[in-house]
Amino acid sequence: MTAEMAKDQVRIFDTTLRDGEQSPGASMTLEEKLQVAEILDDMGVDIIEAGFPIASNGDFESVREIARRAKRAVIAGLARAIHADIDRCGEAVRHAERGRIHTFVSTSPIHLKYQMNKTEEQVLEIITDTVTRSRNLIDDVEWSAMDATRTPLDYLCRCVEAAIKAGATTINLPDTVGYATPDEYRQMFVDIRNRVPDADKAVFSVHCHNDLGLAVANSLAGVAGGARQIECTVNGLGERAGNAALEEIVMAIRTRGDVLPYVCNVEPKYLMRASKLVSAVSNFPVQYNKAIVGKNAFAHESGIHQDGMLKNAETYEIMRPEDVGVKATSLVMGKHSGRHAFKDKLKELGYELGDNALQDAFRRFKDLADRKKHVYDEDIEALVEDEIATAGEGAKVIALTVIAGTGGPQKAILTMDIDGRHETREATGDGPVDATFKAIKAIVPHDARLSLYQVHAVTEGTDAQAEVSVRLEANGRVSTGKGADTDTLVASARAYVAALNKLSLRQQALNPGALKAV
Ligand code: KIV
Ligand code: ZN
């Protein structure tokens, strides 16, 4: 690679598993984090921020396990400017072929006064001390100036200088509160890189939050100002309004190479799969009109657009859907499709199921094809995701009858399988969903609180499958479950039970003494 090309290479640093996971309710299990890390690694993300090791034993475990399994990516862990954090982080990432400690401290006057209660001079000493400690553990050290965009430039220059002198190899200047505009953000990088001695010894990095909807624009502006690392998340998941969306950054760079002369290592074909996976495990649905990965991102409804598309796709499309892993929706699967075709279709959609799961999924597909005129790829995906989520150990929904309508109260009669034993209960409620959830509670008594109930239609039409997300909370633990069915109430019951199984309430229900402890 020539020096010129290397200069224009932009590193993609994904923080879905750290900043993304910090979104309220987006917490993921170890297994889910491993799946996300695997696809990020496969797609060519340069650095994966796998978590915040000091936050909990679970976080430590997942960073360590991701570090062990990573094939190509650098694995980073986050650490506050505290020795215990840095040591714990070093311990987790040292298992990676290439590990990184990412340590940060606030630099803005408002953070220093209200959050840190420290003077500027004290923070400068902290930077030198903590970056030095990190460098004693590992060669690859990133230092971040939290709230950099609200930090006076002169002081920010002194902080960056101290971090580079202590050995930081990457300097990240986050727009922590999503306050900057593109011009300001670009200029900040130009000024800092011009003024700080030895600035060329470090790679500069952007990290933008989306409070004003400017995260991607600001990130690209920072790169124009000399940054060569972009911190971002799949689907823009992240604190408050989220972080810059990885898929938007990658496709902007690829599509507008004429004015954005950079390259990155991410293979765009993985973008849609990564988006779906992150949406499923975080339970944050992707808005239909979301750039690149939204359901409508490549859909054309108006007659004029459709006419243009039929003549030449470039009339209304600046990217090809297949480039980001979006396949044209197909209608080929139906009630006459056999097991073989179904298995092939699953393979095409990226699923490989074991024999039992395949048999169950096929039975459900046939059942769906009997009830639904067209079975789209999205229907099959929803069905398989539901199968995966509800397979294995745990309580299962066997049958549900609901009496609903204006008469009230609405009534649900539910049968569930609990360890091979069928139990049936009736419950009334304020609406059919409430009655269904009360029937579940009658069979599996628990104290969990329902904190989210969301329904969306997988495809169009009144026979569309409903995909329901349920989030339950008990004693500070959060779990989410999904269910899909053409019957919204059956999907709701499945989602609730999947979340309940994750909370392990079933075992405790069998041992009512333990139940209240959940
Ligand atoms: O937004 C922010 O400032 C951060 C830092 C921890 C890098 O996420
Ligand atoms: Zn952040």
UniProtKB/TrEMBL annotation:
Residues 10-272 form the Pyruvate carboxyltransferase domain. Mn(2+) binds at residues 19, 207, 209, 243. Its EC number is 2.3.3.13. One of its GO terms (cellular component) is cytosol. GO terms for biological process: L-leucine biosynthetic process. Signal peptide: none annotated. Residues 396-518 are annotated as: Regulatory domain. Keywords: Amino-acid biosynthesis, Branched-chain amino acid biosynthesis, Cytoplasm, Leucine biosynthesis, Manganese, Metal-binding, Transferase. CDD domains: DRE_TIM_IPMS. GO terms for molecular function: 2-isopropylmalate synthase activity; acetyl-CoA C-acetyltransferase activity; manganese ion binding. It comes from the Bacteria. It catalyses: 3-methyl-2-oxobutanoate + acetyl-CoA + H2O = (2S)-2-isopropylmalate + CoA + H(+). Pathway: Amino-acid biosynthesis; L-leucine biosynthesis; L-leucine from 3-methyl-2-oxobutanoate: step 1/4. Its cofactor is Mn(2+). InterPro entries: 2-IPM_HCS-like, 2-isopropylmalate_synth_dimer, AIPM/Hcit_synth_CS, Aldolase_TIM, LeuA/HCS_post-cat, LeuA_allosteric_dom_sf, LeuA_bact_synth, PYR_CT. Pfam families: HCS_D2, HMGL-like, LeuA_dimer. PANTHER family: 2-ISOPROPYLMALATE SYNTHASE 1, CHLOROPLASTIC-RELATED, HOMOCITRATE SYNTHASE-RELATED. Belongs to the alpha-IPM synthase/homocitrate synthase family. LeuA type 1 subfamily. Homodimer. Catalyzes the condensation of the acetyl group of acetyl-CoA with 3-methyl-2-oxobutanoate (2-ketoisovalerate) to form 3-carboxy-3-hydroxy-4-methylpentanoate (2-isopropylmalate). This is 2-isopropylmalate synthase.
